[in-house]
Amino acid sequence: MYKFNLWALTLVIVLCVTSLLIGSSSLNFDVASLDLLLISRIPRTAALILAGTSLAVAGVIMQQLARNKFVEPTTTGTVEWATLGMLLMLMFFPQASVFYKLLVACLMSVIGTAIFLLILRKISLRSDFLVPLIGIMYAGVIGAIITFIAYRAELLQSIWVWVQGDFSMILRGRYELLWLAGGLSILAYFTADKLTLAGLGKQVSINLGINYNRVFIWGLILVALITGVSVVNSGVIPFLGLVVPNIVSLLVGDNLRRSLPLVALVGAALVLFCDILARVINYPYEVPIATVMGVVGSCIFLYLLLGNKRYAS
């Protein structure tokens, strides 16, 4: 267990240094280079680490709540509801501060996630694959509503630019809300045991002395807040919360107390890697990280699904 954490931490450090060194402007030992580091590259690297860490943690919590390995905030409508909250704020309160936009996005995320989990409780599921299919259809419906409203309000381009996963505009003073997501990930670690028991089901949790409803609501709030913060600050990053928990689960199992630190490190490493790749593919121009993550994440997911007997069965 510790060797996996050590390897992951080493990889994150190497990727952090690489991220700081890559850019259209070269670094020299002068004041201008120091300003470039402090204003742009260090904030960007910090934002990448915080987003990767928190979204991976949100993904594993979502999988525990839904008791399914094939769900994450981007496949359960959580991100779409956060985007809907952002759209409503752009329509009715365009001058609102980022804090109020974040508040509405998080509130809508809570509502959307709760509706999805309520739908799962009402449907008889005979296969684990039905859960992500239901989530994709549910997210598709909400996405269609967002597109329709944005088109009618002539905000389609604005909302697309806002939620497109991209860190190129991250500067000092424009990413600090992501520290809230990082703090929520740390809180998740201190309640990891209860979340693990909640993942065993309501009846088992009650028999073990756990207040299932309270833990369920707490996990729901964690997922919604982390998703809302990430959407407001860095847009939508697909597949991250899906593939990282599955990779870690294959390595160390499903006990959140043991696996959560590794989930956070692998999530940070994957986001850093995809961002570096996005910057070098068409250097000196950038490809949105959401595009790169979509390709890399889908390939990893297909490998896990088709190349591993645990999931293929």
Low-confidence stretches: none
Number of distinct helices:
14
The tally of domains stands at: 1
Give the CA-based shape.
globular
CA radius of gyration: 19 Å
What class do helices, strands and sheet pairing give?
Answer: mainly alpha
What is the annotated CATH architecture? Answer: Orthogonal Bundle
Mean pLDDT: 85
User: Helical residue percent?
Assistant: over 70%
User: What is the beta-strand fraction?
Assistant: under 5%
The largest pleated sheet is described as: none
| CATH class bucket | Mainly Alpha
CATH level 4 superfamily:
ABC transporter involved in vitamin B12 uptake, BtuC
CATH T-level topology: ABC transporter involved in vitamin B12 uptake, BtuC
What is the succession of H and E elements?
HHHHHHHHHHHHHH
In whole angstroms, the N-to-C terminal distance is 26 Å
Q: How many extended strands?
A: 0
Give an account of the 3D structure:
The chain has 313 residues and is mainly α. It has one domain (2-17, 38-312): ABC transporter involved in vitamin B12 uptake, BtuC, CATH 1.10.3470. It has helices at residues 2-21, 31-66, 78-92, 98-122, 130-152, 156-163, 178-190, 192-198, 202-207, 212-234, 240-252, 256-280, 289-307, 309-312. The protein is globular and about 65 Å long. The two termini are 26 Å apart.
